[in-house]
Fold this sequence. Notes:
By secondary structure, this protein is of the alpha+beta class. The protein has helices at residues 5-26, 31-49, 54-58, and strands at residues 74-79, 82-87, 93-97.
Amino acid sequence: MKLTKTDQKKVAKEHVKQLLSEASKVFDKDKKLANRYVEMIIAIRNKIKIRLSKEQKARICKECNSFLVPGKNCEVRIKNKSIIYHCKECNAARRLSRGEDSRKK
Ligand SMILES: [Zn+2]
């Protein structure tokens, strides 16, 4: 059976969700494994071309691809209308607006 593109995306999104929840489970014990899950998520995203939700994007550092856990390796600050995520792994800061996705194409 061949999956249609829509089905493929659905499956991929489900897979990403699972990988993220696995990553948060293993993070405390094995950060490297959590980052492996992130690599898998990025591979899926690039292959299937799905968009991650804002919440999902917030868990992955765009610079170093680390799995981010607020209060652990990520500092979250709220400034005006933006949420600033500061990755403590690579020191990158990233701003997400609280309303619309500011990087809409
Ligand atoms: Zn980073």
